[in-house]
């Protein structure tokens, strides 16, 4: 991918689909955010440090009440779908797209402010992509700042994978192959038959755990191998996240992380073209 614009618009499109999907899922399970739900703000507000300014805390209490929060989710869904529609239409007005990208970024940050429970790496990666996209869209298109915005997304993606792999490498359960079997037997993230299958076959569990570790730590190689190998590694990443979506219910990872792949491909282009 040899164009910064192509890379960032592709990243923005994929990430916006992910935001729309997550908003739709949250609206479908709106009951968990009600006053009697497990993610009730009347309870969660006490798990967060209170804002120093009373007016800021009052605003948070107002925005995170059930009806207001539902409106925020609708706005998140609408903004995500609007970015998708504009991007697919081709040649979207940069100021309008920048405003929508900034709106999605603000809404994602508000979601993170409301609760830390149930969040995962996909939430962080959404922030990364929309921060990079908003920056890219407000600076001159062919400027160094625009290139830096794309490279920021690529660097964050590579760092996220490597850090995750190193963290797993430090865990005894990952090194001995029991981690995936254990995770798959949990109620929240598991698929019991898969967990039991891996637990009953220690060598297969060991191979699966080390495959994940090596993929994540080795993701940095996507920047340095030839183009065909890079696309192959990114394809493995898509399959990896698709499998976690199916088996573990981590749907957000698939679109949030693959949204960074166009930026990784652009960084690869710059490296091999001698620009970096």
Total domain modules: 1
SSE order, one letter for each helix or strand = HHHHHHHHHHHHHH
Mean pLDDT figure:
87
> Biggest β-sheet, characterized?
none
- Measured between the Cα atoms of the first and last residue, the distance is 15 Å
Low-confidence stretches: none
Shape: flat
Descriptive tags:
single chain; 276 residues; mainly alpha; 14 helices
What does this structure look like?
With 276 residues, the protein is mainly alpha-helical. It has one domain (4-272). The protein contains 14 helices and no strands.
Give a topology summary:
Blueprint: H1 4-28, H2 41-44, H3 54-63, H4 66-89, H5 94-114, H6 121-138, H7 144-169, H8 172-175, H9 179-184, H10 192-199, H11 202-218, H12 227-248, H13 251-258, H14 261-272
Helix pairs in contact: 1-4, 1-6, 1-13, 1-14, 4-5, 5-6, 6-7, 6-13, 7-11, 7-14, 12-13, 12-14
Transmembrane segments: 68-89, 95-111, 145-167, 203-225, 231-257
Keywords: Membrane, Transmembrane, Transmembrane helix
Domain HTTM-like: 1-269
Summarize the structure.
This protein is mostly helical and 276 residues long.
């Amino acid at each position: 991918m040899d164009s910064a614009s192509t890379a960032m618009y592709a990243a923005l499109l994929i990430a916006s689909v992910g935001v729309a999907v997550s908003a739709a899922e949250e609206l479908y399970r709106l009951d968990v955010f009600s006053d009697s739900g497990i993610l009730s703000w009347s309870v969660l507000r006490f798990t967060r440090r209170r804002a120093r300014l009373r007016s800021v805390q009052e605003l948070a209490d107002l925005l995170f009440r059930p009806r207001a929060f539902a409106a925020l989710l609708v706005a998140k869904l609408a903004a995500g779908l609007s970015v998708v529609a504009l991007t697919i239409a081709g040649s979207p007005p940069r100021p309008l797209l920048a405003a929508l990208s900034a709106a999605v970024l603000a809404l994602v940050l508000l979601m993170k402010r409301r609760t830390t429970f149930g969040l995962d790496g996909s939430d962080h990666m959404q922030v990364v992509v929309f921060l990079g996209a908003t920056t890219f869209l407000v600076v001159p298109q062919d400027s160094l700042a625009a290139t830096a915005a794309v490279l920021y997304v690529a660097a964050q993606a590579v760092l996220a994978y490597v850090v995750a792999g190193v963290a797993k490498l430090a865990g005894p359960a990952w090194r001995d192959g029991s981690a995936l079997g254990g995770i798959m037997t949990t109620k929240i993230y598991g698929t019991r038959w898969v967990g039991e299958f891996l637990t009953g076959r220690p060598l297969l569990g060991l191979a699966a755990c080390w495959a994940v570790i090596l993929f994540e730590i080795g993701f940095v190689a996507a920047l340095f191998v030839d183009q065909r190998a890079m696309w192959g590694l990114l394809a493995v990443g898509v399959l990896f996240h698709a499998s976690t979506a199916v088996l573990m219910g981590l749907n957000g990872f698939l679109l949030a992380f693959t949204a960074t792949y166009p930026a990784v491909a652009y960084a690869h282009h710059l490296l091999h073209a001698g620009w970096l």
